[in-house]
Amino acid sequence: MNVVKKYVKLLSMGFQSGIEYRADFFLRIVSGMFVIIVQCFLWTAVFKNSQDSVIYGYTYGQMITYVIIAALVAQMSSTGFQWDIAYDVKDGGLSKFLAQPVNYTLYRVFSFFGKKISQILLLTVMTFAVLGACTFFLDFELSFTRILLFFIFITLAISINFLIYYCLSTLAFVMLEIWGVFTLANQTILFLSGGVFPLDVFGEKMNQVLAFLPFKYIVYYPINVLNGRLTLEDIKQGVMVEMVWIILLAILACLLWKKNMKKYVAVGG
């Protein structure tokens, strides 16, 4: 029971941290609005100058909805803890966890998901406000089943993103400066996950390759579940692929952490 209370407390502390830094969170959302506005104008121009009412498999309403929701979903699945891990390794802050009865991995897991709760609550309200507007102005249809599936995929997407960055954070044990790696990873994952624009623009062959990688399921899949563009078979396949990647990434994260901890030297902190 003491162990359970300990990690529930970490979850609570993560939630409080998410609330404490709400100004930074709001500023990130506001800055992302400029990209959304530019994309909306871009796709509006594309549809107006096209003779087709469907482009890349999307109607105008579906495309605008995708662009707006993609920014919110990208925020929902975003991380940030990797910077903290890098600082802990570089500055010796990891040492205190080695001397305390706290599993560092579980500490990061519970702190991260605790912090995410406050963000997701706000982003969920914003998402459904957007969907309500899209339903009214863009003739966008929504159903309870899609909403439920959307949250399932969001949970899986957050888990995948967490594990990817946890694996990347272990590079801090062997690299003096890892900030460039994190920045490159942020942009690459955002691009390959469909956070910039729908992955359909890459063509069928590229999408077949992306279907076996974890990135597609972080942004693209949750949105298209909500859009109603995915069949039941696609959804089943998506869940299976995500579960496989979660297991593989979890095993990889544990192996990398165990291996690189042998190289850790407590300096500073």
Condensed summary:
This protein has 269 residues and is an all-alpha fold.
Question: What is the tally of beta strands?
Answer: 2
CA radius of gyration? 20 Å
| Major β-sheet strand ordering | 1-2
- What's the average pLDDT? 83
Low-confidence stretches: none
Order of helices and strands: HHEEHHHHHHHHH
* Number of spatially distinct domains: 1
Give the termini separation. Answer: 31 Å
Structural class based on helices, strands and sheet pairing: mainly alpha
Count of helical regions: 11
Largest sheet: 2 strands, antiparallel
Strand content: under 5%
Helix content: over 70%
Shape: globular
Structure characterization notes:
It is a single chain. The chain is mostly helical and 269 residues long. It has one domain (2-261). 74% of the residues lie in helices and 1% in strands. It has 11 helices and 2 strands. It has helices spanning 2-20, 22-48, 60-77, 81-91, 95-98, 104-137, 144-169, 179-192, 204-210, 220-227, 232-261; strands at 54-55, 58-59. Strands 1-2 form a two-stranded antiparallel ribbon. Helix 3 (60-77) runs antiparallel to helix 6. The chain starts with a helix and ends in an 8-residue tail after the last helix.
List the keywords:
single chain, 269 residues, mainly alpha, 74% helix, globular
What is the topology?
Blueprint: H1 2-20, H2 22-48, E1 54-55, E2 58-59, H3 60-77, H4 81-91, H5 95-98, H6 104-137, H7 144-169, H8 179-192, H9 204-210, H10 220-227, H11 232-261
Antiparallel strand pairs: 1-2
Helix pairs in contact: 1-6, 2-3, 3-6, 3-10, 4-7, 7-10, 7-11
